[in-house]
Amino acid sequence: MTPTPRAAGLRAALTSRVVVADGAMGTMLQAQDPTLDDFQQLEGCNEILNLTRPDIVRSVHEAYFAVGVDCVETNTFGANHSALGEYEIAHRIHELSEAGARVAREVADEFTASTGQQRWVLGSMGPGTKLPTLGHVSYGVLRDAYQQNAEGLLTGGADALLVETTQDLLQTKAAVLGAKRALAALGADAPVLVSVTVETTGTMLLGSEIGAALTALEPLGIDMIGLNCATGPAEMSEHLRQLSRTARVPLSCMPNAGLPVLGKDGAHYPLAPAELADAQETFVRDYGLSLVGGCCGTTPEHLRQVVERVRELTPPQRAPRPEPGAASLYQSVPFRQDTSYLAIGERTNANGSKKFREAMLEGRWDDCVEMA
Fold first, then answer.
1. Which of 5, 13, 69, 241 has the smallest number of CB atoms closer than 10 Å to its CB?
2. d(Cα 131, Cα 137) in Å, to the nearest integer?
3. Collapsing DSSP states into helix, strand and coil, what is residue 163?
4. pLDDT at 114
5. How many Cβ atoms are within 10 Å of 253's Cβ, its own excluded?
6. Residue 155 CB neighbours (<10 A)
7. What residue ranges in 200-265 does DSSP mark as E strands?
8. Is residue 323 within 8 Å of 246, Cβ to Cβ?
9. Which domain holds residue 357?
């Protein structure tokens, strides 16, 4: 498979400089007050606007490109099985994904032509509302639906696939492998980027540490790993430090504009544009980030200042020290032997195996090793 010139250019950019993505999408769409008819009576289903009000979606992409960002995310965060399923339109995954990519592609091409600066489209593949680890939906159903999502995005002109805001590692795997299947089915070659969401608790929603996410996802052949949503940049620093030390692939960070603050007019995000720019500049210098942007609460002004701050920066060359290991849902365990013997065996527990328990109690270690 040969990558398109745009996809090849994006890969090259991610390894040589800081690429800047856009900021919040949903709040900017809602600020234009689309009607119930615009949503085809499916209130809040932003992906419908790709067909009914592409002018609104275009205006958001234009606002971000106008301040100098390199790439925008498609308006397809909810174009997946569980999110569209709640509106009973899961059969429209491909249609709405392709429509969202086409709108972004048109705007990107216009800005490329008018400015001479190559602009890219990141196909947004959101987490949906069901967690397969908790049994809300089966893995196979999710994977196949994500393949439809990815095929629509690629057909519509996306230059990369961004699996974002993931909270469950099994859902993340379903999205990544759905994306890989889509690339194979279309004979395409495009980067697959993954951005996980770590809560203020210090783990993903289901308790996964960042090390577990890296151990589980990097072997799937992803092109990038990073963080987005849930918190502001301050809460992401230590997780980025860990990724910087151990990840073989490039890194990204798209924080919220701080933690939301509840006021009389509802929640707002307090981080000022200059503060986001400060944080992203520090992250690039300290952790060698290749892709930066914003998430909830960030505006074109936030991204304008980020662009100005990182435009001339060259990410320092990282020298990661990956450590082979295995991961459960919760944590990564390195293959490091502190003693001379390390055994890993599912049946080697005294509660689940009478045979093992008896061998252990009788000191028949050769039998224990054989079962392991």
1. 5
2. 7
3. strand
4. 96
5. 26
6. 16
7. 224-228, 251-254, 261-263
8. yes
9. 337-371
Q: Is the pLDDT of residue 127 over 90?
A: yes
How far is Cα 73 from Cα 252, in angstroms, rounded to an integer?
14
For the stretch 201-248, pLDDT in tens is 999 999 999 999 999 999 999 999 999 999 999 999 999 999 999 999
Please identify, among 293, 310, 327, the residue that sits at the C-terminal boundary of a domain. Answer: 310
Ramachandran bin of 297, using left for φ above 0, alpha for ψ from -120 to 50, beta for the remaining angles: left
C-alpha distances (whole Å) from 11 to each of 3, 147, 309 are: 10, 22, 22
Instruction: Tell me: do 362 and 228 sit in the same domain.
Output: no
232: which residues sit within 8 A by CB, 6+ positions away? 255, 256, 257, 258, 259, 269, 271, 279
Same domain, 263 and 134: yes
Closest CA to 72 of 306, 293, 310: 293
By three-state DSSP, how is residue 349 classified?
Answer: coil
* Amino acid occupying residue 224: M
- Region 136-151: mean pLDDT is 97
3-state class of 109 per DSSP?
Answer: helix
Strands 261-263 and 266-268, sheet pairing: antiparallel
Helix or strand run (H / E) with residue 333: strand 332-334
Give yes or no: residues 220 and 344 share one domain.
no
Task: Give the span between the Cα atoms of 40 and 38, in whole angstroms.
Answer: 5
Residues 6+ apart with CB under 8 A from 330: 203, 207, 208, 209, 212
Tell me the C-alpha distance between 177 and 248, whole Å: 19
Q: 122 pLDDT band (50/70/90 cuts)?
A: very high
162 and 225 together in one domain = yes
What whole-number distance in Å separates Cα of residue 35 and Cα of residue 259?
30
Structural contact between residues 108 and 79, judged by C-beta atoms closer than 8 angstroms: no
Domain of residue 304, CATH code:
3.20.20.330
